[in-house]
Amino acid sequence: MTIMTRRAFVGTTGLATLALSMPAVKRARAADFRYKYANNLPVTHPLNIRAKEAAAAISKDTNGRFEMQIFPNNQLGSDTDVLGQLRSGAVEFFTLSGLILSTLVPVASINGIGFAFPDYATVWKAMDGELGAYIRGQIDKAGLVVMEKIWDNGFRQITSSTKPIATPADLKGFKIRVPVSPLWTSMFEAFGASPTSINFAEVYTSLQTKVVEGQENPLAIIQTAKLYEVQKYCSMTNHMWDGFWFLANKDMWDAVPKDIQDVVAKHINAAAIEARKDTAALN
Length: 283
Prior knowledge:
The protein is built from 11 helices and 10 strands. By secondary structure, it is α/β, with parallel strands linked by helices. Strands 1, 2, 3, 4, 5, 6, 7, 8, 9 and 10 form a 10-stranded mixed sheet that branches.
């Protein structure tokens, strides 16, 4: 697989959707397992591009027995809503930031400590190493299944409609949207900002209507979610690295035969590695 540019992502989205939707019609009756995969990212984001490739490979290698249906862009609800659906079995797969998952698994937020990672080499040494293994063990104890490789979300940057954020002092009184996580809130409160927890599905509207002045996200999300349309400044703060754990409902996962589990996990983990390259290129 090759690294995709912004132009390639946008240009191939329509073709990828058509290419994957047609075989799905043929496989629908034959599939023994039709599992829903939800995420909160635009269809043009690397995560969804690579997830579509993984879904096609899984279907092929299981001879159509396993079909992964992708629901991007909060189609099935907000992050907190879908986490509940995942736990109940209404949704089988979900990718979620560790900082939001920390409402269920507290240690999952550890990668979100401000300025903990100076670069990607340090990130992957930790998250593909002992730290990542420990977090996955805690997720397992919470009754969820988690894939081995965490998906890259990227280093987070601050955008604003009112002023550039050049120094910590610029955050004083700054009304900023943060995800629903105590760690995000406490970090920006420490800088004297005024953080508001808002689910990602409502971020664009909240910025557009001036409920908040700014937000913080990796460049890939700022680009694919078109947040630049409602923001004027982007400050390269690199204040936090964030990633998505690929989660599964345990009962639904255990219902899948081991040989098919192995195929699904193999392609999901491989897609995560490819998406890391894509996201790094966009960032």
